[in-house]
Amino acid sequence: MAGHDNPQPTLEIKKLRFTYPGIDGHPPPGSTPLIDDLSLTLFPGDRCLLVGSNGAGKTTILKIIGGKHMVEQDMMDVSAEKMIFGVAGINPQRRDELIKVLGIDLSWRMHKVSDGQRRRVQICMGLLKPFKVLLLDKITVNLDVLARADLL
């Protein structure tokens, strides 16, 4: 991985263990974990390629990172602040304005927030760098009425 000027990781996963829950919300007794003992630390500017066969858990890992699958808090921690401030080469004033307009709380934990809050962070990250042309599809999906009005 590249040298790190900022010692704070953007993403940190420690001994992640994941089994799909049963109908009661808990893994069925005796079920084998899909992911077992995964640790990963990424710093701003790092790139990571997930490689594996079909069904190995690549998409599941991305869903866990994105907060779509819940895991124990001590296994993974990604804050909105780490995600937004982890984007290199951006204008700080633009970043601060996006955070304000989208009503983002930098202390949000991405694995705990609502779909609308998660979407706000995703929109912010997508708009951090200026574009000559930026095509967005369904940008206001999962946003509440007030957030939608502020964004537009």
Description:
Keywords: ATP-binding, Nucleotide-binding. The mean pLDDT is 79. The protein has a three-stranded antiparallel β-sheet, with no helix packed on it. By secondary structure, the chain is α+β, with helices and mostly antiparallel strands. The radius of gyration is 17 Å and the shape is globular. It has five helices and three strands. Helices cover 29% and strands 12% of the residues. The chain folds into two domains: 11-77, no CATH class; 81-151, no CATH class.
List keywords for this structure.
single chain, 152 residues, globular, 3 strands, alpha+beta, 2 domains
Summarize this structure briefly.
The chain has helices spanning 58-65, 80-85, 92-101, 115-127, 145-151, and strands spanning 11-18, 35-42, 76-77.
Percent in strands: 5-15%
Number of helices: 5
**Largest sheet report:** 3 strands, antiparallel
Mean pLDDT: 79
Describe the strand arrangement of the main beta sheet, using strand numbers.
2-1-3
Low-confidence stretches: none
Helical content band: 25-40%
Q: How many distinct domains?
A: 2
| Distance N to C terminus | 38 Å
Q: Encode the helix/strand succession as letters.
A: EEHEHHHH
Secondary structure layout:
Elements: E1 11-18, E2 35-42, H1 58-65, E3 76-77, H2 80-85, H3 92-101, H4 115-127, H5 145-151
Antiparallel strand pairs: 1-2, 1-3
